[in-house]
Amino acid sequence: QVQLVESGGGLVQDGGSLRLSCATSRAIFSIYVMGWYRQAPGKARELVASITSADNTNFADSVKGRFTISRDNAKNTVYLQMNNLKPEDTAVYYCNAANGLFQQYYWGQGTQVTVSS
Question: CB–CB of 33/100 below 8 Å?
Fold first, then answer.
């Protein structure tokens, strides 16, 4: 059973920072594209950032320049560093592991990020 274990959410003020972590197994981490999605109340889930095993990254336009994504291969963990947070970043953030070739997708349980104005 594939597990994605997230941590690091919380409440922060406008302009603050948070770092989210997502740990999984080596089998998943080494070949899957790791990503972070978010879902705000009443809105669809959207991609925030993703990173491949070759460290190629992709970001939503709304977070470019504020968020970074990285991976620690020794810990099988992906991080989302979120700086200059805004109230519109408030959402539940989900870790995702994707293998498009085999159409396999896994999700973490979600972690709440709340940015107060």
Answer: yes
Q: Which two tokens stand for residue 81?
A: 């560093």
pLDDT for residue 101: 86
Question: Which of 36, 26, 28, 25 is closest to 82 using CA atoms?
Answer: 36
The closest of 24, 20, 17 to 92, measured between CA atoms, is 20
What mean pLDDT is predicted for residues 5-29?
A: 95
Confidence of residue 31 (pLDDT cuts 50, 70, 90): confident
Residue 2 has pLDDT above 90, yes or no: no
Question: Alpha helix locations (H) across 17-60?
Answer: 26-29
The strands making up 5-7's β-sheet, listed across from edge to edge, are 5-7, 18-23, 77-82, 67-72
State CA 85 to chain mean position distance: 14
- Of 36, 46, 29, 47, nearest to 111 by C-alpha is 36
